[in-house]
TrEMBL record:
Residues 1-21 form the signal peptide. This is Outer membrane lipoprotein-sorting protein. Residues 239-259 are annotated as: Disordered. It comes from Lutibacter oceani. Keywords: Signal.
Length: 259
């Protein structure tokens, strides 16, 4: 019995040492290997996600499109209306105003920050060194009962109110499957400035040759988040470039002309 206990302790120490011996690059490499391989990730030219957002018990259909050239948009179907948000064509960023239902361009600052995010497609870790990003393994942390590796990702600074701010996120990779299950980032502006946002990922499923999370939760750290459930993820979709262009406002037709 004493021999068994000694062997168990030795195994535990060995296993713990292996976890602690992991480097950030080894974790990232294993992540890509487990989710389809770097070569298959690099073949991705676009991603289109069809999902439902749970808003106060109501399921709202949305479509999120992201392309390698930087084009992206979120389309919300709400009460019979199609509302585009975060539409970017590589140069201009715009959204539909929920009240007026008219397209409005974002500030130059927001547009410039969006241009920086183009390099994150399809995953910010894929070519992080080429993009000038850095990573650091900060150790282990338990997230919702799951042991994880905590990796700090530092990207190029963003500009907030005319000042450059650090662009840092903390990714939590579970120690069994080496996939991210949570991301924490400090909110830089708005009502919740200074607080930590939290995104959680689960239900990884295979799409083509790549594994993606089909269940997401987004919100503030340590608070209930908003659930997003993927219905379908399509790789390399065909999307008309006109969908990303800022719509020219049509002249209003007078009542006299209508008659």
């Amino acid at each position: 019995m004493k021999t068994f206990k000694l062997l168990f302790i030795a195994f535990t120490i060995c296993f713990t040492s292996q976890i602690n011996a992991q480097t950030a690059d080894e974790i990232i490499d294993t992540y890509f290997e487990n989710t389809g391989g770097v070569e298959n990730w690099q073949k991705i030219e676009g991603i289109k996600m069809s999902a439902k957002v749970n808003q106060g018990g109501m399921e709202i259909p949305i479509e999120i499109t992201q392309l390698k050239n930087g084009n992206q948009m979120t389309v919300i179907n709400f009460q019979g209306k199609v509302i585009k948000q975060g539409v970017f064509n590589g140069e201009s960023l715009w959204s539909t105003n929920f009240m007026t239902q008219k397209a409005e361009k974002s500030s130059q600052e927001a547009t410039d920050n969006m241009k920086l995010a183009i390099n994150d497609f399809p995953d910010p870790f894929l070519n992080y060194k080429d993009n000038g990003y850095t990573v650091e393994l900060l150790g282990n942390e338990t997230i919702d009962g799951t042991e994880t590796f905590k990796i700090k990702l530092v990207k190029k600074p963003v500009t907030i109110d005319g000042k450059q701010e650090e662009n840092v996120s903390y990714y939590f990779f579970d120690t069994e499957n080496f996939v991210p299950i949570a991301v924490h980032s400090e909110i830089k502006s708005g009502q919740f400035k200074g607080q930590m946002s939290e995104s959680k990922f689960s239900d990884y499923q295979e799409v083509g040759d790549i594994y993606f999370p089909f269940s997401l939760t987004q919100g503030l750290k340590d608070q209930p988040g908003q659930g997003i459930t993927m219905d379908k993820i399509e790789l390399n979709p065909t999307v008309d470039a006109k969908e990303f262009e800022f719509p020219e406002e049509q002249p209003e037709t007078s009542q006299e002309n209508k008659n």
